[in-house]
Amino acid sequence: MTEASTAAAPGPADLAEIYYAPSDVFERRREGGFWMPLFVLLIAMTVIYYATRGVMQPLFDAEWARGAAAAAEKNPEITPEQMEASKGMVQNFAIVGVIVSMLIGPLLTGCVLWVVCKFAGVKETLTAAITVAVFSFYPMLVEALVNAVQAAFVVPEESIRSRFSLSLGPARFFDDASITTQALIGHIDVFTIWTAILIGIGVKVTGRATTGQAVTVAVVMWLIGFLPALLGAASG
Questions:
Q1: Fewest beta carbons less than 10 Å away: which of 117, 176, 210, 232?
Q2: Handedness of CA 32, 26, 193, 215 (dihedral sign)
Q3: 80 CB contacts (<8 Å, ≥6 apart)?
Q4: CA 57, CA 46: separation in Å to the nearest integer?
C-alpha cells in the first residue's frame, strides 16, 4: 500500500476501495468507523432488492415450493389455501428480512469475530472487529447483482429450483441432493470465500495479526458460517 493511501482519512472512497484495495481501507479504519459503511450497505441492499424483485421472483417461488413441500410433509393438515396465504404474507415482509440481516448481521458477526480473535491471540478491539465484519458483507452486494443478471439472462426460469441454482460454486450442480447437502455445499462458493478473505485481511491489518493468525481466524469464521445452514436444514 502507498504512504498516501494509508495516511488518508476514512471516507466514502472506502466503499469502492474495499473491492480492490482492502488493506488500505482497513489500515485507515484501524480505530474502527463502521456506522457509515453499515448504513450504506443497508441502503444499497434495499435498493438492489426492490430493483431486482421482479427478476428474482422465480427464485422466491422455487424456494417457497421447497419450503412448502417440507412443511406439508411435517404438517399434512395444512391446506393449499393456507400455504398460498402464507406465501403472500412472507413475500410482503421479505424486505424486513433484508433490513434485519444487513443491519444486525454485520454487528453480530463482528462480535463473533472479536471472540474468535481473542482465542487466536489477536489483539483486536470490538469496534475494529465490527468494522471488518461490516466490510466483509460488501461482496453480498455484488452477489445480489450477479444473481439478478443470471436470473434475467443466463439461467432459464424453469432451471431455477433453489437459490443454489445461481450459486457460483459446486452446489449449482447438485440439484438432486438433499436440502442439508445443498446447504453445506452451498457454503463453498466465490462470495463466501471472498468474505472469508476480507476477514483475514481485515484482522491482519487492524489487529496486527500474523499471517497464520489471520488465516486461522478467517477459516474459523468461514466454518462458523456453516451453522445457519445446519440449523436451517435441521429445522426443515
A1: 176
A2: negative
A3: none
A4: 16
d(CA 200, CA 164): 26
Fill in the DSSP letter of residue 189.
S
**If we measure between CA atoms, which residue out of 180, 181, 185 comes closest to residue 234?**
180
SS3 call for 178: coil
Residue 8 is placed in which grid cell?
488518508
Q: Which residue has the cell 447483482?
A: 145
C-alpha cell at 194: 471472498
* Contacts for 145 with CB less than 8 Å, ≥ 6 apart: 48, 52
Q: For residue 222, what is its C-alpha cell?
A: 468461514
DSSP 96: H
Q: pTM of the predicted model, to two decimals?
A: 0.88
Positive or negative CA dihedral for 74, 80, 84, 89?
negative
Closest CA to 213 of 223, 201, 226, 222: 201
Q: Which cell numbers in the block locate residue 48? A: 438492489
Could you tell me where the beta strands, DSSP code E, fall in 70-122?
Answer: none
